[in-house]
Design goal:
Blueprint: H1 2-27, H2 29-36, H3 39-60, H4 63-73, H5 79-103, H6 105-111, H7 121-144, H8 148-172, H9 178-202, H10 209-219, H11 222-234, H12 236-243, H13 246-256, H14 260-280, H15 286-316, H16 337-353, H17 355-359, H18 366-388, H19 390-415, H20 422-444, H21 450-466, H22 472-482
Length: 484
């Protein structure tokens, strides 16, 4: 088991380095936007990208999940058919869907709540979504082939091009928010060019219809699941704009993006976790291994959560070349960051618990778990935003991820029972709740000083130690795992 955990840790680290560097480069755009654009303009951009995230799901309709599943477990020898069938299907459908977006650009712009002078953004939107959908399967191919270095280089190149073009178009050509979409499109096209050799290597110009049917049976349930997942992630922006204004959306979005640090952790884990559990599912100790992974993931995530929650305001207000990470006009939303981080931690647990859906080919349950989360998200947003503003939206996201995690746990236990270490995980969350209560209490009385933050952090680690979340043997095992 130790060797397997070490393998997962190494894969997570490889993807993590590229993901962290990439997200950091991409995160540079947030200070740029918040210092250049007023909150209302930033709100327009945020709103459009919320809808783009949802449309991405329609363009890929579960073919990515199906390809990941069948390409990792196939023994038929039809490797090129397994790639070409979903790839060609996605290419054709992406062209058709993009054409529809452009033909019906006026009603689409109305749906996006775009001001009339921004309707042209629909053209960029259609192109960006199409190219990203076409690139999705080749990127999964690189993960399955464990070509992590190539994967990392391609992702970093995409983001570097995006950042550089944003800077050039915004500061030199003074293009406004149009620069964001042009930069994104060119960066996406660069990824397609870089992926072309992998596409050419695996592509045959035929669609295996029996195979496509199997892909649809497994993948289509991920269409409603994906839509619901994106609703969980982005529906708060349109609802907030409806109930408040674009300025509030802009401030919320800027602070929500500070959850990137937990999202990075979840993303790098997910890249390594999915191929890992699919290739190790037939091992005799697989379930024991998966249980340990959830415990260690939750523990690591809790450390990230507490540290960032305590010091996020110090990080954000730190001056680099005379500029802060986000503009001072956006600081009023900093209190939502701990809630966003906790939501992402539950999202990571959901990713971990979803292994059973893939292993047992029970994708039909994915829409149920994520759909529950989406319903909770919409309901809580409408209930809390009028009362609590931005904090209400953050709590809605947290509530939805919590419901998703709870529901997938009970569902997967029915057909792929794993004896997770519930006692240890419960202790971790009890400690998080205690720390959270003290944190917000000190904020309310104006006593959250740097010294008090450090005391809270020390108390957090002492509580983990005295509650014996990890025993001596596990601590020694972890030392061996991370030993270089």
């Amino acid at each position: 088991m130790l060797d397997k955990l070490k393998q997962l840790t190494k894969d997570t680290a490889v993807y993590g380095i590229s993901t962290i560097l990439g997200r950091f480069l991409n995160f540079i755009l947030t200070p740029i936007y918040t210092h250049v654009f007023p909150p209302a303009a930033f709100g327009v951009f945020s709103n459009v990208y919320a809808y783009i995230a949802v449309l991405n799901i329609f363009f890929i309709y579960g073919m990515d999940s199906a390809y990941l599943k069948f390409a990792s477990t196939d023994e038929s020898g039809k490797k090129k058919d397994i790639f070409s069938t979903p790839f060609l299907t996605v290419v054709l459908s992406s062209i058709a869907l993009s054409a529809l977006l452009i033909i019906f650009k006026t009603p689409v712009a109305y749906l996006f709540r775009l001001p009339e002078n921004y309707i042209y953004i629909i053209y960029y939107t259609a192109a960006i979504i199409s190219v990203d959908a076409i690139c999705s399967l080749p990127f999964i191919y690189l993960r399955l082939e464990r070509e992590s270095k190539k994967f990392a280089i391609f992702k970093l190149t995409n983001i570097l091009i995006n950042v550089v073009l944003n800077v050039v178009l915004i500061f030199i050509y003074k293009m406004g928010i149009e620069a964001i979409f042009i930069s994104n499109l060119i960066a996406s096209l660069s990824s397609l060019i870089l992926l072309y050799p992998s596409i050419r290597k695996n592509l045959v110009f035929r669609i295996n219809m029996p195979m496509l049917k199997r892909f649809f049976v497994f993948g289509i349930p991920y269409l409603p699941a994906g839509i619901a997942s994106q609703i969980v992630q982005v529906i708060d922006r349109p609802i907030m704009e409806l109930l408040t204004n674009f300025k509030t959306v802009g401030i919320y979005q800027a602070n929500y993006k500070l959850g990137i640090f937990m999202m990075l952790f979840v993303s790098m884990f997910q890249y390594a976790w999915q191929p890992f559990f699919l290739t190790n599912s037939k091992e005799s100790n697989a379930k024991e291994l998966f249980a340990k992974v959830l415990t260690y993931f939750t523990l690591a995530g809790s450390v990230i959560l507490i540290f960032l929650s305590l010091y996020i305001d110090n990080i954000v207000k730190f001056h680099i070349f005379g500029r802060t990470i986000i503009g001072s006009a956006y600081w009023s939303g900093l209190s939502i960051v701990p809630v966003v981080l906790l939501g992402y931690l539950f999202n990571g647990m959901y990713v971990n618990l979803s292994a059973g859906l893939y292993i047992k080919e029970k994708s039909i349950y994915a829409p149920i778990t994520v759909g529950l989360g989406a319903l909770v998200n919409v309901g809580v947003n409408f209930m809390l935003i009028p009362v609590m503003g931005m904090m209400g939206a953050a709590l809605a996201t947290l509530a939805s991820y919590f419901v998703m995690t709870l529901s997938i746990y009970f569902i997967t236990q029915r057909f792929y029972k794993i004896s997770y270490e519930i006692g240890k995980i419960s202790k971790i969350f009890l400690i998080i709740l205690i720390v959270g209560f003290v944190y917000y209490y000190l904020i309310s009385i104006g006593r959250l000083t740097f010294f008090n933050k450090t005391l809270i952090l020390v108390a957090f680690f002492l509580l983990l130690y005295f509650t014996k979340v990890l025993n001596k043997n596990e601590l020694n095992a972890l030392r061996r795992i991370f030993k270089v």
